[in-house]
Each structure stands twice: as C-alpha cells, then as structure tokens.
Write a structure and sequence with these properties.
With 487 residues, this protein is an alpha/beta fold. It contains 15 helices and 17 strands. The termini are far apart. Substrate binds at residues 176, 180, 214, 233, 338. GO terms for molecular function: glucose-6-phosphate dehydrogenase activity; NADP binding.
Length: 487
C-alpha cells in the first residue's frame, strides 16, 4: 500500500523583506529544512511592496540571511535547495487587488500559514483582504507578531478584527520567549519531579526574580520604541509569560487549552497596583551615556529620532504579587532594561532559609538555596546548595548542582523561532497566547502605565553599562534580597 503524500504547505510571510523575516524567520525555516522538518512540498512565499519575482526574492534572502545562519549549518547544497522553496508576490497589503495574485501563487489544496510580520495596524486589513480573496479556510493558520496593541482597547480591537475571519484555534500569537528550550523545560522540571513540586509554593519559596537584560540600545527602532517603552515592549508580554509558567498550577493535561487556562488564572490573580503601590513597588529608568562592552555609547536622549525631552522608560523593575494560596506573601521581582551591563535573561527561585540553623555563626549561612534558570545567552539550570569546604571544621560555601542539559541531550537544540514555526505547521497551540491571556495581561499593565502618567514621574537615569537605577536595588532590599548579579 502506498503511503499518502503529506499535504502541501504554503508559509506566506507578510513583510517578507522586513528585518524580522531575513534575520529570524528565514534562517529558522532553513534550519527546519536542513534537518528534515519541512515536507518536500512546503513553499515559502514572501509578500511585500517590492517589485520582485521569486528569483529576486531568493537572491535577496541569499544576500541578507546567510550571516544569520550558524556557520556550521550553512551547507551550500542544502541552502540552495532551500532557496528553491522561495517565491514572492508583490502587493500592497492594504489594497485588495493584489490578493488574487497571492491566491494564484498558492499550491492547490495547501495548508496555508499566514505570518503577519508587519505593523499590527495592518492586521485587520490583511485579514479582510485574505477573506475577500477566499484564501481563508478551516485548515489555515495566522501568526500574529507583537506588539499586539498599545493598551487593552487596541489589543481588543486587533483581536476582534482578526476573529471576524479566523477561529481562535487558528490564531497563533507568538512570543519567542515561549519557544526557548529552557522555558519549555520548566514545565517538566516543575511537574515531572516529585522533589520540586511540594516545595514550589509559600512558605518554602522566599522570592522569585525574572530578569531580561539587554546590552543593546534602541538602535534604529527609536521611532517605534519611544511610543512603546520597556513596559509594553518586554514586561506586558515576555516577562508576564515567564511569570505564568513559574507560578501556574499543574494543568490537568498538556492540551493547549488546559495549559493556557492555568496561565490565565495567574494573570487574573496578579494584584493590581494603586498609585501608592506604584511609588513603592515600581522603578522606571532611562539610560544615559556610558560604556558597554568596552565601547562608549550614547544616552537614550542622544539617540537618533528620540525627542530631546522624552520620558520613555528603557528600564523597568516591578515587585508583583499573586493573590492566591500558593503564592501568598511571595514577591515576584520583574526587571528588564536596555544598555545593561550584560545580555542576560534568567529566572531565579530563591528558597526560604531553614527555620533554625546550627551554622548561624557563619556569614555563608545566609546564602539561600536557589534554582537558577538561565535563558540567554546560554541555556542552563543550576541548583545552588550549601556544602562543606574541604579541610577541618564545618565552614560552608555555596556550590552548584548543574543540570547539564547539553551533555545529557546531545541532539541539536532548535532555536526559539524554529521551534515555534514547526508548532504552527503542526497545529500545536500550547506555546502561543490565547485571546483572553493577552487581554488579561493588558488589564494588569494598563493601570501601571496610566498611574505613571498620573504621577508624572520621570524615569530615573542610569549609566549605560550598569545594572539600572540604584532604586531597583532598594526595591528588592526591602524583602531582604539582592539581584542575582550582586550575589
């Protein structure tokens, strides 16, 4: 009996010549191609205003994307075969007449994946035009890139516009942090190990830190970033998604809705911050001139296209609280910033001190147990414990039990975008935000943004190459804690 050939797949990228496409999406799809994760009849169709055909688009990707593929993976025969998958349709996303050409470019009976790597203001028009061209059917999918709105009303407007043409189970709101191997491994660490789950709660956990630090400034994105800021760009999406995975209850299954139901409960349990809370529990910052990686860099206000009196925050630290029985009294410290001392993203679970210690006379005894989950630049999981120093006596010092995932699993680890793109192709929704999740996140973030506006509180300056304003250290010090880099 002959095997049934897999259905053809058309991955249609609106904004196909944009920065995200040639830096991330096409290199990720090439890696999937190289490792046999794309079916033979999978084609990638770039869409944009450029007056190109498929060959010209392939030449553009050949020129721009090569540098973003790991050198050891850039195998010339495979790369050339990948470029043969590419096609291009020239059209104005806001005008309907070009969509007939897009329909003609798709393979008969294909599963269509529409990736909207464009400004969100175009999402509604693209969905409307796809519908008019009869390109939407029951098996197609649409991927929405962030930022998904500027506030709750704009997020709801985007959701409603897209929902007029796509069912919720066809909509993939992408957050590349959820594609990271260590983030996905956190589910297994929590719910697959009896040693951790009983301790994953108050009073056994003293605090949680979630940090996403960048060394880069705003670069060429100042026009976008100055209207967005760190709260909208990082906290409302990336950091809250990490918080949800750390704090959620065990889902009844790995079904996508069961997992996302538990994440939604966390978002709905986040304590809303009053104006008094904002003054006490949040810190806004803006980088000034300094030194990063040995290079002198400009301050935010000196960057191109930044208004000279801008009060946009490039740094945020927040003490968050989850109002439920598991996390009663446990502070969650969220922190993100640009032009920080080093590029570093991690989650630190700080366990409580023993209720009584026979080693209380030793300063080292104040070092708590910590689970350190590093997301970038390298991915790792370490458990910090106390051990006796060699020699006579009982002097202690902290040591790490290193869960060496690189050695334990020698197979290749896919990058976040590659992993998530394959999830879209296979119809797996678990690592994508559902509509009510997105809106619940904005319901928590909007009062913070509005409160800052009411307080007219200018962001605190911090020199580029530092770890942010000194006030962020004071924020955690109130809880008898310090940020990880100060350990």
């Amino acid at each position: 009996m002959n095997a049934v050939a897999p259905s053809p797949i058309d991955i249609i990228i609106f904004g196909g010549a944009g920065d995200l496409s040639w830096r991330k999406l096409l290199p990720s799809l090439y890696m999937a191609h190289l490792h046999g994760r794309l079916v033979d009849n999978c084609r990638i169709v770039g869409v944009g205003r450029n007056d190109w055909n498929g060959e010209q688009y392939a030449a553009f990707i050949d020129k721009t994307s090569r540098a973003h593929v790991e050198a050891s993976a850039l195998q010339e025969p495979a790369w050339q075969n990948f470029l043969r998958r590419l096609d291009f349709v020239s059209l104005d996303a806001t005008a309907g007449e070009g969509y007939a050409r897009l329909a003609a470019a798709c393979q008969p009976g294909s599963t269509k994946v529409f990736y909207l790597a464009t400004a969100p203001v175009l999402f509604s028009q693209i969905a409307e035009n796809l519908s008019r061209a009869q390109l939407i059917d029951g098996q197609c999918r649409v991927v929405l890139e962030k930022p998904l709105g500027h506030d709750l009303p704009s997020a709801q407007a985007i959701n409603e516009a897209v929902a007029r043409h796509f069912q919720e189970n066809q909509i993939y709101r992408i957050d590349h942090y959820l594609g990271k191997e260590t983030v996905q491994n956190l589910m297994v660490l929590r719910f697959g190990n009896a040693i951790l789950e009983p301790l994953w709660r108050a009073p056994y956990i003293k605090s949680v830190q979630i940090t996403a630090a960048e060394t880069v400034g705003v670069g060429t994105r100042a026009g976008f970033y100055d209207h967005t800021g760190a709260m909208r760009d990082m906290v409302q999406n990336h950091l809250l998604q990490l918080l949800c995975i750390v704090a959620m209850e065990a889902p009844i299954s790995l079904d996508s809705d069961d997992v996302r139901n538990e994440k939604l409960k966390v978002l709905r349990s986040l304590r809303k911050l009053s104006l008094a809370d904002l003054q006490r529990d949040t810190v806004r910052g803006q980088y000034t001139a300094g030194v990063v990686d040995g290079q002198q860099v400009k301050g935010y206000l000196q960057e191109a296209d930044v208004p000279e009196c801008s009060d946009t925050e490039t740094f945020v630290a927040i003490r968050a609280q989850i109002n439920n029985a598991r996390w009663a009294g446990v502070p969650f410290f969220l922190r993100t910033g640009k032009r920080m001392q080093k590029r570093h993203s991690e989650i630190i679970i700080e366990f409580s001190d023993p209720p009584f210690s026979i080693f209380a006379d030793q300063p080292a005894a104040s070092h708590p147990n910590r689970l350190i989950i590093t997301l970038q630049p390298e991915e790792s999981v370490k458990l910090q414990m106390m051990a006796k120093e060699p020699g006579s006596g009982m002097k202690m010092r902290p040591v790490h039990l290193n869960l060496d995932l690189q050695s334990a699993f020698t197979e290749r680890r896919a990058e976040a975008y590659e992993r998530l793109l394959i999830d879209v192709i296979k119809g797996r929704l678990t690592h994508f935000m559902r509509r009510d999740e997105l809106e619940a996140a904005w319901k928590w973030a909007d009062p913070i943004l509005e409160g800052w506006k009411q307080l007219a509180d200018k962001p605190k300056p911090y020199p580029a190459g530092s770890w942010g304003p000194a006030a962020s250290s004071a924020l955690v010090a109130r809880e008898d804690a310090v940020w990880a880099e100060a350990q």
